[in-house]
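Design a sequence for this backbone.
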C-alpha cells in the first residue's frame, strides 16, 4: 500500500504551489494588499478564508466523486459550456502567467544587472525552448534546490528589513505612492481576485492529492494549514514592505531594493534566486501552454518545435509591455475569470452536498 499524504504534506504542497516568484518579487503584495492601506489586514484575512474555501471545496469534490482529474471534479455533471470555458480560460491563464514571468525576468536583469529588459526575457525564452524540446527532468532537479532557496531568501531579507525599518515619518508613510491596478476597483474585491487567479494553479495539484490523504480529516486540516501559511506569508510581506513603503511603493521589484539595502552582493544573490523562481513558474506554464496549443490544433510531433518556438516568440514580445503593467492588467482579468470558475464550483458543491445529505437522511 502506498504511503498516504499527511496534514503537513498537503499543507506544504498547497502553499508551495501558490507561493512563487510573485510573492518573492513583492509586486503582487503592493497592488493587491498594501495599496488599500488601512484595509490591508482585512484583505489578508479575506484572502486566507478564500484560499481555504477554494482549496477545500475542489478537494472535497474530488473525494466525493472519486476522481483525480480536476475537470471531472469541478464539472462532474459535464456542463459543455463550462468545459469549454475552463479549457480556454486555463490555457489563457497559463500563457498570461508565462508572459508575466518573462517580463519579471527581464525586469530583474534590467534592475540589478543594468542590461536591457529584453535580454533577461530572451534568455528565459531560449532556456524554455531547450528544456521543453529536450526534456524537463533536469530542470525539475534544479528547481527542487532553488525553490527552498527562494523561500529562505525572502525570509532573510524580510526579517532583516523588519528589524531595520525606514526612518520615514508617519506623514511621509501616509502620503507614499503605491503601485496599483485600475482594474481592482475596490478593496473588498482585491483579496478575492488575488485568490481567484492563484487557486487555478493549485487545482491540478490539490485534486489528485486529496485522494492520497489518509482521510477526510487529514485533507481538511492540511488545507486549513496551507491556507494559514499562504495568508501568513502575505501578511509577513505586507509588514516588511510597509516598513519601507516610501522607498519601495512604486518600485517594480521592491524586494530586490530591500535586499540591496543589506549589501550589493546579497542583492545580486537575491536577483539570481528570483530569476530562477520566475523561471520555475515559467517552465510549468510554458510546457502546459505548448501541450494545450498542440491539442487544440491537433498537431503532430513534427510540428512540436514550431509550436514551441512560436509560443516562446509571442510570449517574448508580449512581455515587453513590462512586469508592473502586466501584473496590473493580466492578473486582475484572470482573477475575474477565476471568479466565474469559483461560482460554478460553489454551485457544484452545494448540489453534491445536498445529494449527500439526502442520501444520509434516507439511510
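Sequence:
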Amino acid at each position: 500500500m502506498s504511503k498516504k499524504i499527511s496534514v503537513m504534506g498537503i499543507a506544504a504542497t498547497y502553499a508551495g504551489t501558490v507561493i512563487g516568484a510573485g510573492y518573492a518579487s513583492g509586486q503582487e503584495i503592493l497592488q493587491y494588499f498594501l495599496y488599500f492601506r488601512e484595509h490591508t489586514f482585512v484583505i489578508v484575512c479575506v484572502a486566507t478564508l478564500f484560499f481555504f474555501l477554494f482549496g477545500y471545496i475542489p478537494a472535497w469534490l474530488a473525494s466525493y466523486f472519486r476522481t483525480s482529474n480536476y475537470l471531472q471534479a469541478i464539472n462532474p455533471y459535464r456542463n459543455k459550456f463550462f468545459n469549454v470555458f475552463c479549457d480556454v480560460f486555463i490555457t489563457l491563464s497559463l500563457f498570461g502567467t508565462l508572459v508575466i514571468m518573462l517580463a519579471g525576468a527581464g525586469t530583474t536583469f534590467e534592475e540589478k544587472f543594468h542590461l536591457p529588459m529584453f535580454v533577461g526575457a530572451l534568455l528565459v525564452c531560449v532556456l524554455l525552448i531547450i528544456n521543453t524540446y529536450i526534456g524537463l527532468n533536469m530542470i525539475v532537479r534544479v528547481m527542487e534546490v532553488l525553490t527552498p532557496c527562494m523561500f529562505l531568501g525572502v525570509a532573510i531579507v524580510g526579517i532583516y528589513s523588519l528589524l531595520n525599518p525606514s526612518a520615514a515619518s508617519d506623514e511621509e508613510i501616509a502620503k507614499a505612492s503605491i503601485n496599483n491596478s485600475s482594474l481592482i476597483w475596490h478593496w473588498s474585491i482585491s483579496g478575492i481576485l488575488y485568490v481567484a487567479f492563484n487557486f487555478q494553479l493549485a487545482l491540478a495539484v490539490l485534486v489528485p492529492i486529496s485522494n492520497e490523504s489518509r482521510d477526510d480529516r487529514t485533507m481538511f486540516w492540511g488545507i486549513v494549514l496551507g491556507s494559514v501559511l499562504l495568508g501568513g506569508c502575505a501578511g509577513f510581506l505586507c509588514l516588511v514592505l510597509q516598513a519601507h513603503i516610501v522607498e519601495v511603493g512604486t518600485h517594480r521589484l521592491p524586494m530586490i531594493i530591500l535586499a540591496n539595502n543589506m549589501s550589493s552582493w546579497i542583492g545580486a544573490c537575491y536577483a539570481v534566486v528570483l530569476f530562477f523562481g520566475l523561471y520555475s513558474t515559467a517552465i510549468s506554464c510554458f510546457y502546459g501552454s505548448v501541450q494545450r496549443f498542440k491539442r487544440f490544433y491537433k498537431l503532430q510531433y513534427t510540428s512540436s518545435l514550431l509550436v514551441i518556438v512560436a509560443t516562446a516568440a509571442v510570449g517574448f514580445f508580449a512581455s515587453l509591455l513590462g512586469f508592473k503593467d502586466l501584473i496590473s492588467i493580466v492578473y486582475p482579468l484572470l482573477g475575474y475569470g477565476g471568479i466565474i470558475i469559483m461560482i460554478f464550483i460553489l454551485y457544484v458543491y452545494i448540489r453534491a452536498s445536498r445529494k449527500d445529505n439526502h442520501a444520509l437522511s434516507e439511510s
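The CA atoms of residues 148 and 316 lie 27 Å apart.
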